[in-house]
């Protein structure tokens, strides 16, 4: 049995990775319905929370059906992170997650996210102060290190464990790699199997199918699997992985009619949550995933990307259903 604080999870829980402008409440609910056991919010700026920025506050909203859920915060200032943790606690999530892995330049240039990989004493101090500032369990998500010459994830994990975190998720790339190149899980396995590490270790990076998920679990003995980009537009991935881990059965890709039905549900919930204009812009990230594998789909994807409203999208989806009905 894996635990985050007092929250009991199943064997090898599947965790939805936090992703900006993707893992909002409508998408988290969808992923939960298909087997994600734990979800995490989009990353939230500590400074934004303190200034009561509307977007930052909105990112903290969630429903009971999303539990267990973590609110992820990031920042460069220790005092601001402490305040943000206390504000996040007021929303009553199951845990607070610290973002020490975001490689995006605008975050790193301000000293947040993966920038802390270059200052481990500060990362440890920040973690210790956040843990002290809240009654909730605190977890962390990070990377193998800053670059190829500084893959110091074992030291990072030891420091964060000593500072009081309840679990760690490790993305199997460095900050310099960003999201490019092949994820290297070797060091994740070394962290998990090190005799001094006793907190749950979750692996993340390149989990894009059920067979890959089982291979990573069995080869590196991680406590759980965190799934990110491969689930964008593909919430079925959680169901496929769970079935393969538990039963050894491979589930075929969903038929086109189910893809369209779930896409419509996702779209309508998103419009209700954040409005049509913003939804149509952000939803462009999802179309490729929803229809991955369909031959000749590019022209329809371009139509969906350029759609001016919900009604136009529905007409395009009807056309897709008719053409790919037997796929």
Describe this structure in words.
- This protein is α/β, with parallel strands linked by helices and 327 residues long.
- The chain is 44% helix and 14% strand.
- The protein has helices spanning 25-33, 46-50, 54-59, 78-90, 105-108, 120-133, 153-163, 186-192, 210-220, 236-247, 256-274, 276-282, 287-290, 298-306, 310-323, and strands at residues 2-4, 7-9, 14-16, 38-40, 44-45, 69-74, 95-100, 138-143, 167-171, 201-204, 224-227.
- The strands form two sheets. Strands 3-4-6-7-8-9-10-11 form an eight-stranded parallel barrel, surrounded by seven helices. A two-stranded antiparallel ribbon has the order 1-2.
- Strand 9 (167-171), helix 8 and strand 10 (201-204) form a beta-alpha-beta unit.
- Helix 6 packs parallel to helix 7 (153-163) and helix 11 crosses helix 12.
- The longest helix is centred in the last third of the chain and has 19 residues, at 256-274.
- The model has no long low-confidence stretch (mean pLDDT 95).
Key words describing this protein structure:
two-stranded antiparallel sheet; 44% helix; alpha/beta
Order of helices and strands: EEEHEEHHEHEHHEHEHEHEHHHHHH
Radius of gyration, in angstroms, nearest whole number: 20 Å
**So how many helices?**
15
Portion in beta strands: 5-15%
Q: Report how far the terminal alpha carbons are from each other.
A: 40 Å
Query: Total strand count, please?
Result: 11
* Mean pLDDT over the residues: 95
Mass-distribution shape: globular
């Amino acid at each position: 049995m894996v635990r985050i604080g007092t929250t009991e999870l199943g064997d090898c829980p599947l965790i939805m990775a936090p992703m900006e402008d993707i893992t909002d409440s409508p998408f988290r609910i969808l992923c939960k319905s298909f087997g994600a056991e734990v979800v995490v919010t989009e990353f939230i700026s500590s400074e934004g929370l303190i200034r009561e920025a509307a977007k930052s506050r909105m990112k903290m909203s969630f429903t009971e059906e999303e539990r267990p859920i973590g609110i992820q915060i990031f920042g460069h200032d220790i005092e601001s992170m402490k305040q943000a943790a206390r504000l996040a606690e007021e929303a009553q999530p199951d845990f607070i997650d610290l973002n020490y892995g975001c490689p995006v330049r605008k975050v790193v240039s301000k000293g947040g996210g993966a920038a802390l990989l270059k200052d481990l004493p500060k990362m440890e101090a920040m973690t210790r102060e956040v843990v002290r500032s809240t009654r909730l369990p605190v977890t962390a998500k990070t990377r193998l290190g800053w670059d190829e010459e500084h893959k110091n994830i074992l030291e990072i994990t030891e420091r964060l464990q000593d500072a009081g975190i309840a679990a760690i998720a490790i993305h199997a790339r460095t900050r310099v790699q960003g999201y490019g190149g092949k994820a290297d899980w070797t060091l994740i396995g070394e962290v998990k199997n090190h005799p001094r590490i006793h907190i749950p270790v979750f692996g993340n990076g390149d989990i894009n199918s059920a067979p890959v998920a089982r291979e990573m679990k069995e080869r590196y003995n991680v406590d759980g699997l965190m799934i990110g980009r491969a689930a964008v537009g593909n919430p079925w991935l959680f169901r496929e992985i769970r079935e393969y881990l538990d039963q050894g059965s491979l589930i075929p890709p969903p038929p086109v009619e189910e893809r369209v039905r779930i896409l419509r549900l996702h779209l309508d919930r998103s419009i209700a949550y954040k409005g049509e204009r913003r939804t149509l812009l952000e939803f462009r990230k999802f179309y490729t995933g929803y229809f991955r594998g369909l031959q000749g789909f590019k022209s329809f994807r371009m139509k969906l990307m350029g759609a001016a409203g919900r009604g136009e999208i529905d007409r395009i989806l009807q056309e897709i259903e008719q053409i790919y009905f037997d796929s």
